[in-house]
Amino acid sequence: MLHNPKQAISIEEAEAIVKRWQAVSEAKPKTFDSPPVKPTPNPYDAALSAIANFHAVTGTDRASTSAGGSRDFSGKSSHEEEESDEKALMEFEQQTWDWYQLQGTLDHTRLLFECQVRAQRGENDAKRRLGVLDIFHKSRYQNRANRWEPAPGELNWRDLPEAAPNPQVQATWGPRLWALLIGNNNYPQSPLQGAVNDSLAWKSYLIGFLGVPESHITHIQDADRSTMVTALYDLRDNHNIKESDHIIFAYAGHGSRYDAQVNSFDDDISHRAGSIETLCPVDRGLPQGRSTPDISDREILLILSEIHDQTKADITVVLDCCHSGGGTRELGIDLRSRTLAPLVDPEVTRRMFVEADEHPRRRPSTPSVRSPAWARATIDIYQPVLLAACQDTELAWEENERGLFTSAVMRVLRSEKGRSLTCSGLIKAIVPLSYDQRPRFSGKDTILFEPNKTVTYGAPSKTSSFFFFAFIRRLLAFLSSLLW
Questions:
Q1: What is the rounded CA–CA span in Å between residue 111 and residue 3?
Q2: Is 213 helix (H, G, I), strand (E, B) or coil?
Q3: Are 345 and 361 in contact (CB under 8 A)?
Q4: Which residues does residue 292 pair with via DSSP β-bridges, in sequence order?
Q5: Per-residue confidence band for 120, with pLDDT thresholds at 50, 70 and 90
Q6: Which of 210, 246, 311, 443 can pair with 385 through a Cys bridge, CB separation 3.0 to 4.6 Å?
Q7: What transmembrane ranges does the database entry give (predicted)?
Q8: Is 477 helix (H, G, I), strand (E, B) or coil?
């Protein structure tokens, strides 16, 4: 049943509204250095404030015509028209949520994901709703009037001046650092503009600021699946990496997410797979007939586990992408989110797991990506430090040919204060980045390039408990063998 059908908004009506917004957005200059907005717990008020300001700052007064012939704003002020538009689209959003019989409070990202799945199945109505709601969702990020201000004493990354490189750090840390940097722009659908620039920014920082030899850095632009996986295995087999060294794996590009309730997995994992987060190579979905699958988080973690087991080096993973499964369209020419819808072909989804397990360079002793231990959270593998651009259900943004997250991280790491921050401190220094982009951290809380200086961060992780119980099980097995 539709929500309040007396106020039902037609698709034509909603399309006319967002078409006007796009025209205004394309005419409005955007700047990366604008401070992020102040987050608010009320999405209705946030969207209303965001788009009201978005239209107001353009200085344009739209003609009171009835675009599409479905709404008449004659005689209304610009503010009244904006407010009426806003309420209409919020009603349209709620109608779509109810129409799809989604449970609970309206979740914008979940609704986009549902629209996208239906659109990929060929539902024309869903394609049109996606076109409207995707732009409406992104418009919430356009508010630049309510400027976020840090609390007194908190670090504001935008105000940090760049420090001069420290020769001692360059001499001691440079030779001990290794990096795999991947920036993917050139996707057949929804290409990006800033991912390659992000990977180049990491390369410049590592070489110029930390003194890392260029021979220690593998930098790949627009990598296909085979190239990405091969580069990870090459790190494992690099015998020049020593136990005291540190490895950085930085990826910028599209991400995606596969939900077992929506996507078709193999029978042996479909009931326990949960969500599978992926990195998207530029050849995903190509060629027709035997499409290339994404790279699952399970496959990446297992390869990183092999790397750590072989080299004994600490690993830090930096991901400037998102896995929300949200929309892929842009509001204007400069603002893009780094997420793609999951590939819908069940055969491609199945191969995402099969190719990981059957890769010729995978060690037989490495757990399967289809192991039930993943669902029970008892998988016993190495857990790297992770710095991610946003929460699982949020969007990671790029603007003016740079990723917002990578730009913020670079600003902090190149500052004097950034040298003494732990990973959690670094993340806290750049939160929030926008209305709904909150970077996250997991793993051992170290000063990024001083891994011997550790601090206790929160409660022990489940992974730490798994390692402990795995050790106890091995100890008991050993004692039992002695008794027998």
A1: 15
A2: coil
A3: no
A4: 284
A5: low
A6: 443
A7: none
A8: helix
